[in-house]
Write a structure and sequence with these properties.
The structure holds two protein chains of two kinds. In chain A, 37% of the residues lie in helices and 21% in strands. By secondary structure, chain A is α/β, with parallel strands linked by helices. In chain A, the strands form five sheets. In chain A, strands 8-14-13-17-18-12-19-20 form an eight-stranded mixed sheet, sandwiched between helices. In chain A, strands 1-2-5-4-3-6 form a six-stranded antiparallel beta barrel. In chain A, β13, α4 (208-220) and β14 form a beta-alpha-beta unit. Chain B folds into two domains: 5-101, N-terminal domain of the delta subunit of the F1F0-ATP synthase (Peroxidase, domain 1); 105-175, Glutaredoxin, CATH 3.40.30. Chain B is elongated and about 70 Å long. In chain B, strands 2-1-3-4 form a four-stranded mixed sheet. Classes of the chains: A alpha/beta, B alpha+beta. The A-B interface holds A 12, 15-16, 19, 21, 23-30, 32, 42-46, 74-76, 93, 95 and B 1-5, 132, 154, 156-162, 167, 170-171, 174-175. β1 of chain A pairs antiparallel with β4 (158-161) of chain B, so a sheet runs across the interface.
């Protein structure tokens, strides 16, 4: 290598000369008590609320350990420690930094797995970005917002059809453990491949093996390139689990407000962020609050646990054109115990979000997966978040399913029913069967339109229920192979309803397929 | 270290009385005498004995202290004993001294250097610190070779770090 020694020393000399060697005054305090991730510090008279403070010495992996001053009391300051704390001793000196906690944001984060402080944990090297944002921020005001009018295509038929999600909406995914909540989130992320949204997956309190599994599944589906994974796993200190969702939200806000330019040149202004899950987030906050000796309220949660989630979810918005027109959609996940949605945290988050997707273990065990209960699931945005063609065909589904559920008890009797009832039961059964979908296979919206139209308008009525899935898959493959232009037309014109010619064409195509199917 | 609000409240009251009667120094001396007496093991044990009446304890103390301290100071002793707060005397004295220092604009600075400093250097440091903090400085010295050079001065909650060690650390962070 032809680097000259004197060049190197002159560079170093320049840096030394330009070094700011002024002596600074800092506020300091002394640790009086430390343990369980909390330190009580005597002194720090000028420290402000939520200011970052620095602990002496290095943590086990060599980095500085920072803390956040949360409890400002008469004599002492309660500091939560964001990192390992076993090397901090009673009597150690604590310095204030004058900074508020912030995370790196920008395009350099896309495709990476980071921890709650924005440091990379995927082993793919440093994250070089010059932009940082505070993790706590006041949500955009009323004037800067616009109503939700563009869909987030999850690729899941039952959601896009009956409980559609729009860009800028907050939709809660709620259910017992092992009912498929994370699966819905992952399918949504996978469906954005090749689309115009960046996805952020915030894993709070999960097993590291599970986060690795998620990253692996996304990479296999080619979806990791447009995803940021923020992970505060179960072994991370509770302060990190407490701030992880806010850190992810700041990354999403950067995309919403300033847009992000990907390596292939596209600028993206829409993001979807998934908080998996907020129940563990509330647990982490409860842990931190109890250790700080804040008074315990219902279920031992502190008094401001509603504010904890409301200020997080309010930051998801759709901005109007004057402010860039970007959006941040939030999909928080809550785990219930024994389907009890009237517990404290679930009721809090239900009242904050614009709708919920209920997953039930009964449906899951009966083979209906995704185990969504369309009867009690709601999307308060509704039709405004659907493409025109989808709104056209999906209109009758919710009602058909509601009527089916009402009559479901009579299904036991079978032959003792009148023709109209039997027809309703058959139709409902076929719709339910068609709404089932395997994991990791989101369906683009044009194919959903075709499939829902076919089932909802009786084209599958003569197909035995256990062959409905086969019928549907065959139909979609047929449309792909023989009439791809029809599908492309629907895909490229999201604001256009299906014209009468298109509907006639579709009927013809389905008839054509059915002949082949029978044979 | 935190002294607690009980000590602070009594000290505040004592300070205001002392200031009003212009007896700050006298009170400081009296308080030290009182502290010495109340913290003597035999006396403190006697005061903690629940079987003795308050009059008994006050009378016993008046025999010892009446001659030594002023009347208002003895009133303080009576008040403390009657309320069973005599164990806070240490905190009261510490807080009182801090209040007096604050009032007079005196601050205590702990100055750490790598090598011992002489009188002239100490005077310069004292003057500079006075300029920075705007208060009269009393210096307590400490020698710590691990800072390599320069000095570290801690005045109350403020740290002024001019040690060679911390400048090397800043250098390392900048060059990294």
């Amino acid at each position: 290598m032809a680097v000259r020694a004197d060049e190197i020393s002159s560079i170093i000399r320049k840096q030394l000369e330009g070094l700011d060697s002024s002596i600074k005054q800092v506020d300091v305090g002394t640790v009086v008590e430390v343990g369980d991730g909390i330190a009580r510090v005597y002194g720090l008279a000028g420290v402000k609320s939520s200011e970052l403070v620095e602990f002496p010495g290095k943590g086990p992996n060599g980095s500085d350990v920072l803390g956040m001053a949360l409890n400002l009391e008469e004599d002492t300051v309660g500091v939560i420690i964001m990192g390992p704390y076993t090397h901090i001793e009673e009597g150690s000196m604590v310095r204030s930094t004058g900074r508020i906690i912030s995370v790196p944001v920008g395009a350099a984060l896309v495709g990476r797995v980071v921890n709650a402080l924005g440091q990379p944990i995927d082993g793919k090297g440093e994250i070089k970005t010059d932009k940082t944002r505070f993790i706590e921020r006041v949500a955009p005001g009323v004037i800067t917002r616009k109503s939700v009018d563009t869909p987030v295509q999850t690729g899941i038929k039952v959601i896009d059809g009956t409980i559609p999600i729009g860009r800028g909406q907050r939709e809660l995914i709620i259910g017992d453990r092992q009912t498929g909540k994370t699966a819905i989130a992952l399918d949504t992320i996978i469906n954005q491949t090749g689309g115009d949204m960046i996805c952020i997956y915030v894993a709070i309190g999960q097993k590291q093996a599970q986060v690795a599994q998620v990253a692996g599944a996304l990479e296999k589906a080619g979806a990791l390139a447009h995803t940021i994974i923020v992970s505060a796993s179960a072994s991370d200190p509770s302060p990190l689990r407490y701030i992880a969702p806010y850190a992810g939200c700041s990354m999403g806000e950067e995309i919403m407000e300033n847009g992000v330019t990907l390596p292939d040149g596209r600028t993206i202004k829409d993001a979807v962020i998934i908080y998996d899950d907020l129940s563990k987030h509330a647990n982490a906050y409860r842990e931190v609050s109890l250790l700080l000796r804040r008074p315990a309220g219902r279920e031992a949660y502190p008094g401001d646990v509603f504010y904890l989630h409301s200020r997080l979810l309010e930051r998801a918005a759709r901005l109007n054109e004057d402010n860039g027109g970007g959006s941040l959609t939030a999909l928080p996940i809550i785990e219930t115990q024994a389907n009890d949605v009237s517990a404290y945290i679930p009721t809090n988050v239900i009242s904050i979000t614009d709708g919920q997707i209920f997953l039930e273990s009964d449906l899951f065990n009966a083979g209906i997966r995704p185990a969504v209960n369309p009867g009690i699931s709601v999307s308060r945005v509704g039709g405004a978040a659907q493409t025109a063609s989808m709104k056209q065909v999906a209109g009758g589904i919710k009602i058909a399913l509601a009527q089916y559920r009402e009559l479901a008890a009579f299904a036991q009797f079978g032959s003792d029913l009148d023709a109209a009832t039997k027809r309703q039961l058959d139709r409902g059964g076929r719709i339910t069967e068609s709404l089932k979908q395997p994991q990791y296979s989101p369906i683009p919206v044009e194919k959903q339109v075709v499939s829902l139209y076919a089932v909802n308008n009786g084209f599958a009525d003569d197909v035995p229920i256990n062959k409905v899935k086969e019928f549907e898959n065959g139909l979609l493959k047929f449309m792909d192979d023989v009439y791809p232009a029809f599908l492309a037309d629907i895909h490229n014109n999201p604001r256009k309803k299906l014209s009468n010619e298109q509907i006639d064409q579709l009927k013809k195509y389905i008839g054509e397929f059915k002949q082949g199917f029978r044979a | 270290m935190p002294t607690g609000s009980a000590g602070r409240r009594y000290a505040q009251a004592v300070f205001e009385v002392a200031k009003a009667s212009n007896q700050l120094e006298q009170w400081a001396k009296d308080l030290e005498v009182i502290q010495q007496v109340l913290e003597t093991p035999e006396i403190s044990q006697r005061l903690e004995n629940p079987k003795l009446t308050r009059e008994n304890k006050v009378g016993f103390l008046s025999g010892i202290l009446k001659a030594e301290v002023s009347q208002p100071a003895f009133n303080l002793v009576t008040l403390l004993v009657n309320r069973s707060r005599q164990m806070y005397i240490g905190a009261i004295v510490t807080e009182y001294k801090q209040l007096v220092n604050q009032f007079k604009g005196i601050a205590v600075a702990e100055v750490t250097t790598a090598v011992p400093i002489d009188e002239a250097e100490e005077a310069i440091i004292r003057q500079k610190l006075s300029e920075i903090t705007g208060k009269q400085i009393i210096i307590t010295k400490k020698v710590d070779p691990s800072i390599i050079g320069g000095l570290v001065a801690r005045v109350g909650d403020t740290l002024i770090d001019g040690s060679v060690t911390s400048r090397l650390q800043t250098l390392r962070k900048t060059l990294a």
